[in-house]
Amino acid sequence: MTTPLTTPEDYLALLREATGLDLDEASVHRDFDALAGWDSLHLLKLVSSLERATGRRVPVGQVLQARTLDEIRAIATAA
Amino acid sequence: MTTVATTPPGAEASGPEPESAFDRLRALNTEGRLAAEFPSLPSLLAEVAAGESGTADLARAGQFLARVAPDDILAAHPDTTVVSVAVAGHSTVGPVAGPLTAELARHGFALRLSLGDFDGYLRELQDPESHLHTAGTDLALVILDAQAVFDELPPVWRVEDLERAATGKLAQLAVLVERFAAREGAGTLVLNTLPLHRHHTHQLVDLKSRAALGVAWREFNAGLLKLAARHERVVVVDLDPLVAQGGSLNEPRMASYAKANLGEELLARYAREIGHLARTLKGRSKKVLVVDLDNTMWDGILGDDGADGIAAATTFRGEAFGNFQKIVRQIGSQGVLLAISSKNDQEPVLEVLRTHPDMQLRDTDFVRINANWNPKDANLRDIADRLNLGIDSFVFVDDSPFETGLVASSLPEVAVVRLDEEPALHIDKLLADGWFDVRELTAEDRERGALYRVEADRQDLLDSSGSMEEYLDKLGVKVQVAVVGDGDLARVAQLTLRTNQFNLTTERLQPAEVRARLDDPAHLVLSVRSGDRFGDNGVVGALFAHREGERLHIDNLILSCRVFARGIEQTTVASLLAHARDGLGVTEVTAAYRPTKKNHRVKDFWPSLGFEQTSETEEGELGFTHSLAALPEVPTYVHLDADLGGS
């Protein structure tokens, strides 16, 4: 099952599902330290959801260094 | 049947797709109504759990359920049972939060969770101030993985090092567990066996060492499992069968980067075991298994195919049904009552159960056989009434989506096992949940089926008697009230845990807590045995009391619902009051009634024996006093044998 993350809405939907957090578009660009309710476990859930959605392996080492959800999207969708 | 009449609303070509249970949960989350709708979650979660990827979907739902504060649930629904769980671990413990929340919500429990530090298990087990030891904690989970042992090895190691590390770790854990279990008021400690990964064994290249590692590892795990046998408050979850279900033990990147050494899938299965353990601790184990017959217990439809056309042996499919019958029988041999609800005529069903050569189960294995054409929800209610058991203690098994759907929607408190047309999967589906898990089986459990069948004989006597008095007189009720002996301790604890209807204060006591009261000279812990001309009922009741100066206070009185209304309860209290006045020399006896959803029938019990009501709290708890001026009489038809000891 591969759903391309073409629109910001797709990515937001995936984020909400993976984390259970009520995120909005602004939170995608917020630093993790400023993201209410965020913890490292969400990151792990997000990685598995991204891999399911894109059908590709996500470089976890890079994801761990990202500071925002948008950076993670960029890493996951980079060719 | 016309198409119009069978098309359910919402399924028209132009209508929207019917929402899945998971979608409805997600909608409740988006609307912020999970706490408000908490009582409706078990039905939705049961549906999610029954789906193709049940455990994984439950864990996903747990992601957002875990964000609902237990206090918000309690504010909306003050009657909600809260389960307090403290988790410590060797690796990251956070990932268990989601699945655990979902599995508990599925049973209607709100989870109050406290997560320990990364690799904090030794310190948290040791430190009496740690969250594992907090008063009121129901379950203290110490989640271990193989790294707990492997981290102790030198950089380069031989199998002898591993053997030493494993022995040392087991000894260390044994001491910590011992100390934990000895502490007053501690919850139930839950450990787990440590699954071995291929990357552990295959670091050794010589096969001889690899085999020695295998031996040392099994001995370590066996040692852990033995800890549970030594302590009443310790449970060890064996992860081996959960790993054997398949899937990966962990996700190597998550293990490496996030120290999540046990994978999501395994933790989800673990959480399911913990959910059933919580049910057991809260006295909510299921007691009755109701099965369908056609295409559930045998291949074919009796009404259409005839007795010769059904099979539970000899054919491929028949054999699968036969194997399923064996499992049902096995469960029935351990105190679970078996009953039938089948859409058939009664006579042909009885004939098959008595004479068909394929059957592993016979008519005498069932306490009720309801073969008729009434709706199954009505039949389940009928069986519950006849057995005098709450319908929430029922598990219902059927292959028909119509029947399982009907029962799930009209009796949401019944656990429904949804079988399908593949009989080889019946066993896995029935055993996917530990509905009947109990801490320990008692002699009464093993005899329970027979006891309920004798009940039918008593019913016949009642039907042939002119009056209740005549019946009781003919029945020849014998009651023995005595201080609890060692052999009855587990049974007495079980009565406090399992009895809901005749339970005056519903104070649940684990075996260790019963023992503590037995050892306390101020406390009186009595067992009530009963019997009659049809046989011995075993231990059917318990009474807890303690002395406060010139007063004896009855903490609780419990009686199995099997033996209500035969004068046993009056006899027990009458003999206690006589002992209080003449043996203990106290001047009054006090007692209480604490209302629950289930025990309203005994609200007037104390006044009926001459107790005066003295107080009532806002929660409806009633206080009573007996002046001991006039003692109630033991009913004339009861033969009493009381031995309440000297003091």
UniProtKB/TrEMBL annotation, chain A:
<protein>
    <submittedName>
        <fullName>Acyl carrier protein</fullName>
    </submittedName>
</protein>
<dbReference type="InterPro" id="IPR009081">
    <property type="entry name" value="PP-bd_ACP"/>
</dbReference>
<feature type="domain" description="Carrier">
    <location>
        <begin position="5"/>
        <end position="79"/>
    </location>
</feature>
<dbReference type="Pfam" id="PF00550">
    <property type="entry name" value="PP-binding"/>
</dbReference>
<dbReference type="InterPro" id="IPR036736">
    <property type="entry name" value="ACP-like_sf"/>
</dbReference>
Automatic annotation (TrEMBL), chain B:
<dbReference type="InterPro" id="IPR036412">
    <property type="entry name" value="HAD-like_sf"/>
</dbReference>
<dbReference type="InterPro" id="IPR036514">
    <property type="entry name" value="SGNH_hydro_sf"/>
</dbReference>
<dbReference type="InterPro" id="IPR016181">
    <property type="entry name" value="Acyl_CoA_acyltransferase"/>
</dbReference>
<protein>
    <submittedName>
        <fullName>HAD-superfamily phosphatase, subfamily IIIC/FkbH-like domain-containing protein</fullName>
    </submittedName>
</protein>
<dbReference type="InterPro" id="IPR010033">
    <property type="entry name" value="HAD_SF_ppase_IIIC"/>
</dbReference>
<dbReference type="InterPro" id="IPR023214">
    <property type="entry name" value="HAD_sf"/>
</dbReference>
<dbReference type="InterPro" id="IPR010037">
    <property type="entry name" value="FkbH_domain"/>
</dbReference>
